Amino acid sequence: MPRSVNSVAKRARRKKVLKQAKGYFGRRKNVWTVAKNAVDKAMQYSYRDRRNKKRTFRALWITRINAAAREHGLSYSQFMGQLKANDIELNRKVLADLAMNNPEAFKAVIEKVK
C-alpha cells in the first residue's frame, strides 16, 4: 500500500506558524524550523506573562492604596484590617482607583473605617 502524505494539512500548519512569526528578526520569520521554535517559546512567554500581569497590577494597586492611606495616618495593613472588621467589601482595584481619581471618596472610606 502506498504511503499517504497529507501535504495540504502540513502546508496549512506551517503557514499558520509562519504567520504567527511575522515581524520576527532574521531567519526566525521565514525558516520553518527556526520559526517553529521561536513561536513555541513566544507562546510559553505569553502564557506565563498573562499570569504575571495580574501579580504586577495587584502590587501596583497595593502601592497606591498604601500611599493614599498613609496620607490619612493609616498604614496599608491597618487600613485593610479595618476594612475587613467593618465588613466593607471593596477590592484593591476599586480602592486604588478611588485613591488615584477620587480622593474625596477615598477619604470618606477612611473616615468610615476609623
UniProtKB/TrEMBL annotation:
InterPro entries: Ribosomal_bL20, RIBOSOMAL_L20_CS, Ribosomal_protein_bL20_C. Keywords: Ribonucleoprotein, Ribosomal protein, RNA-binding, rRNA-binding. Pfam families: Ribosomal_L20. GO terms for cellular component: ribonucleoprotein complex; ribosome. GO terms for biological process: ribosomal large subunit assembly; translation. Binds directly to 23S ribosomal RNA and is necessary for the in vitro assembly process of the 50S ribosomal subunit. It is not involved in the protein synthesizing functions of that subunit. This is Large ribosomal subunit protein bL20. It comes from Pseudotamlana haliotis.
